[in-house]
Amino acid sequence: MTKIVHVVLSNNDSAVFVNDSLIYALDGNEGGELPLTVAQRLAESMPDGVIQRVSMDVPDDADWNWNDVLELIPASDGVQRKMPAIQRPCVAELVGESCEQVMAP
Fold first, then answer.
1. What gap in Å lies between CA 13 and CA 7, rounded to an integer?
2. What's the rounded mean pLDDT across residues 21-27?
């Protein structure tokens, strides 16, 4: 299974990790593609992609880096997080509809 982790810090910095490797990060004050969008596209392109969404405070160390953040995230083996793991979303859910409504005959 491909593990995709989307992290949002309390200062709105955010990042995407794939199998514990940082692939994209965005400072909360910068413009650019939102990491959640990147994570969703990755999950959609991988048959076994699962997104874990995590919200957390900025690390206490003023010289933190994204590897420090990754170390603070508990393993995904059943440890409860602030935001639960989600399976790949149906595209309809991204526009506010339920998959059941779209899939209904």
1. 8
2. 93
Tell how strand 14-18 and strand 21-26 pair up. antiparallel
Looking at the structure of the chain, the number of domains it has is: 1
Domain range enclosing 64: 2-103
Q: What is the pLDDT of residues 47-68, one digit of tens each?
A: 887 888 899 999 999 999 999 9
Q: Please, how many CA atoms are within 13 Å of residue 32, restricted to the half-sphere of its CB?
A: 13
pLDDT at residue number 46: 86
Q: Which residue has the higher pLDDT, 50 or 13?
A: 13
Helical ranges in 53-98 per DSSP H: 66-72, 91-94
Helix, strand, coil % over all residues of the chain, rounded to 5: 25, 30, 45
Distance CA 68, CA 87 (A): 26
Cβ neighbours of residue 57 closer than 8 Å, sequence gap 6 or more: 9, 10
- How far is it, in rounded angstroms, from Cα 1 to Cα 19? 9
